[in-house]
Design a protein that fits this description.
Elements lengths: L26 E5 L2 E6 L11 E5 L9 H9 L6 H7 L3 E7 L6 H18 L6 E6 L1 H15 L8 E7 L10 H14 L5 H12 L2 H6 L15 H12 L8 E6 L15 E7 L5 E4 L6 E6 L7 E5 L10 E3 L12 H10 L2 E3 L8 E4 H4 L8 H4 L12 E4 L11 H13 L1
Parallel strand pairs: 3-4, 3-5, 5-6, 6-7, 7-15
Antiparallel strand pairs: 1-2, 2-4, 8-9, 8-13, 9-10, 10-11, 12-14
Helix pairs in contact: 3-4, 5-6
């Protein structure tokens, strides 16, 4: 199934299927930094009565309504928009001109959208506001800011929701980051593959990625750590109270709550290649302790070793996975590295570990630090979450995959609220 938020988006060099056009919105709101597409419930006669704002998340470029509609409504498992419409809720899909911009910048766009929804609404029904992936952080920040900043209006929101949102940080494998920056340094000016490498490296070094990633490296030889941009964002979030106070907060995770991992073994060779441009180059899954996570060697040059220390074995942790490989062209995490190695003219060993954990369950449910190796695999209970209620998937599945299990739970919470 296609996710609501496709992390790699158009950066992946593999040909992807195009999405059928979304239905024409009943209204379209130009916003400062984005666009909102409004779909009224058939029960409301083309009036905005019970707005539900759903924010897009992290990817490259601008939001794509066709992709968002497909992930929300045509995913093959649960028609989320139709189910909301059946309860009399009007759906406002919130997109951004630049999904790699800082969370705080896109939060201003979310505030603009909330203002417009309040102004357009007929009656006094409270709003539901939330988002998918990073969209949950954007709307969390926006609502909290509206409560704290006296120059901003009341958000008139009763329920906040997040869908596999990295409340405690996201995991981009260090080996993958290193290979991307290394390949861009060596072949970033090459025809065909160069622009792809530069886009991908730029995506990982974008303001949004730096703010989300629990560990980030600017280039292959950097030490993994929280980027200054992330620390500044966390400070800004803390300054406005961390969470909106006047709303009920709910969330779901595309990972399990039992502590059961996804089966990816720590310290395993995820992808290895040999060929015209790369010699004995490999990436490993993350393990605890001191580890060489990657060996990178351009043909004719000395090898580069990428080391980590003190990181948890997080690739195999329970949580939402990097986009699960599919015929549409999704590649996973290490699968994308394998594809880039092939594009660079090398033969990749066939036993690739394509995907890995992206948003640990404990991050999506705001229950603990993802740098704690024990906490990653502990069962999750309601008493230690910052959310008022949450639901986990029955298996570790693709990040922002819309399922009946999670979607129906959210619809029920909205109706009950």
């Amino acid at each position: 199934m296609n996710p609501v938020v496709d992390v790699w988006g158009p950066v992946s060099p593999k040909v992807r299927s195009s999405f059928p056009p979304a239905p024409e919105p009943h209204d379209e709101w130009p916003l400062d930094g984005g666009t909102a597409w409004v779909y009224y419930s058939p029960l409301n006669r083309r009036q905005l009565i019970r707005p539900v704002i759903l924010s897009d998340g992290f990817s490259s470029g601008s939001s794509d309504l066709d992709q968002l509609w497909h992930g929300l409504e045509e995913n093959g498992d649960f028609r989320f928009i139709s189910e909301l419409h059946a309860t009399g809720r009007d759906v406002v899909i919130l997109g951004y001109n630049d999904r790699t911009a800082s969370i705080t910048a896109n939060a201003d766009t979310a505030i603009d959208c909330i203002r417009r929804a309040v102004a357009e609404r007929v009656g006094r029904a409270k709003l539901v506001v939330g988002g998918f992936s990073m969209g949950g952080l954007i709307t969390r920040y926006a609502l909290a800011k509206m409560e704290q900043d006296p120059s901003l209006p009341d958000h008139e929101t009763s329920l906040y929701l997040s869908y596999d949102t990295p409340h405690q940080g996201a995991w981009f494998p260090i080996a993958l980051q290193a290979f991307t920056h290394f390949a861009t340094d060596k072949w970033g000016e090459a025809p065909v593959v160069g622009p792809v490498l530069r886009q991908f490296s730029g995506l990982l070094n974008s303001p949004a990625a730096k703010e989300m990633a629990r560990w980030h490296i600017e280039k292959a030889g950097s030490t993994p750590q929280q980027a200054p941009e992330r620390m500044a964002f966390l400070t800004a979030l803390d300054d406005i109270g961390g969470w909106p106070r006047g709303v009920r907060k709910i969330g779901v995770a595309n990972g399990v709550d039992s502590g059961t991992g996804n089966g990816v073994k720590a310290g395993a060779t995820a992808v290895k290649c040999q060929g015209d441009t790369l010699n004995d180059t490999w990436l490993k899954t993350q393990a605890e302790g001191d580890q060489v996570v990657a060996r990178l060697q351009k043909a004719g040059e000395e090898p580069v070793s990428v080391r980590t220390s003190g990181l948890p074995a997080i690739d195999g942790a329970p949580g939402g996975l990097f986009t699960v490989p599919s015929p549409e062209g999704d590649t996973g995490s290490f699968g994308l590295a394998a594809l880039l190695m092939t594009v660079l003219g090398n033969t990749v060993n066939p036993d690739v570990i394509t995907t890995s954990c992206f948003i640990p369950s404990i991050s999506a449910l705001a229950v603990g630090d993802i740098d704690d190796p024990k906490r990653l695999h502990q069962p999750i209970t309601p008493d230690n979450s910052a959310l008022d209620a949450f639901q986990c998937a029955g298996r570790n599945e693709g990040h922002t995959t819309m399922t009946e299990e999670l979607g129906a739970w959210i619809v029920n919470e909205i109706v009950a609220g």
